[in-house]
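As agreed, record passed on underneath.
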Amino acid sequence: MKILAINPGSTSTKVSYYVDGEIVKEQGISHSTEEIRKFQNVVDQMEFRRDILLAFMKEEGIDPKELDAVAGRGGSLPPVSSGAYEVNAEMIDYLKNVTQIEHPSNLGAILANEIKEQGNEKTIALIYDPVSVDEFEDVARISGLKGIERKSIGHALNMRAVAMKVAREEGLDYHNSVLIVAHLGGGNTISIHQNGKMIDLISDDEGPFSTERTGGLPLKYLMPLCYERSLKEMLRLYKREGGLKSYAGTSDARKIEERVLAGDEELKTVYDGYIYQIAKGIGSIATVTNGVVDRIALTGGVAYSQMVVEELQKRVGFIAPIIAVPGEHEMIALSKGAERVVLGEEELKQFCQSDFA
C-alpha cells in the first residue's frame, strides 16, 4: 500500500509518503512570503506547489505510477459529513470558481488530482475530513442574530484523528463516548465529539484568542475599527496580527514563556489570560453534553507546553481527565483514511454541487 499525503498551509506544503502502515518519508517544504505574494489567489499557486511536490517525489524516488492513493487536505467546501470524498471535476470547479473562502487547504484536492494524473488508472485522489466538516445539531447553529448561522469551520482533520487516537488508547469506543478536543496553535478550535460525531465546536473567530488570532472580541468596541480599516486589513488583523502576537510582538509561544519565566509581569498577565480563555472555552463546550465528558484532549503545537497543560489541568481537570497529544496528526490521518478507503473498510463519498444548491 503506497499513499502520498499533501497538506498545503499558508507558508508551507507538507508531504508524506506512506508505505504499508507507516510514514517512511515526510517533509515540510517552506515557502517564503515573497514567493507566496506573487499569487493573487490561493488557487493560483497550484503549478508552483505541484512542481515542488513532483521535485520532492523525484528526489525521494517515489514513482507516481506505484501510488494506490493521493490524499489531500480538504478545503472550503460546503458543509459536508466527515470521512473520505473522491476528488472529482465538480469538487475542483467548486474550489476554483465557487467557494468564497480563501484557504490554503483549497489546494489539497487540486494538487492530489494533479499527482493522480501522473499515476495509473487505479490511483485514487481523495480528501479526508475537510475543514468544512459539519455534524452540528440544529441548536448549535443558532448565533444570536437571525440570518447569521454558526458554522462548523475548524481543524476537523486533526481533531477527529486525535479524538479517535485518545479513545483507542484510553480503552474507549469513539462511537460510544464523549470527548473534548482543543486544538491550540496559530488558530484555536475547541470541539466536542459525541458518539462518533463532532456535534459542536468553538471556532477561531468566536472563542479564545490564540498565538496569532484574536478570537472573539467585544463587538461594541470592535465595530468602530471596522470603519477605520478595510476588510482586508481587518482580516489580517484577526488572522495574522492578533492574539499573543499583538501583545508580545511574536506568535512563538516558546519565546513568550521564556519572557514570562524571566520575570515579564505584564506579559505574564497576558499569558495567564490566554490560558484562562482556553479553559473557559473547554468549560463552556462541556455544557453541550450536560457536563458528561470522558476525556479532554489537548493538541496542536502549544500542547507541547508543560506550563499550558498544567494550568489547564488546574482549571478544567475536574470535568474529565486531560490527555496531551501535542503537535499535528494530519498527515497520518490523511494516510490512514486513504488506506481504509483502498482496503474497502470505509466508503468513498462523492461530492456533488447540486446537493448544496
About this structure: The chain has two domains: 2-132+330-356, 138-326. The domain at 2-132+330-356 is CATH 3.30.420.40 (Nucleotidyltransferase; domain 5).
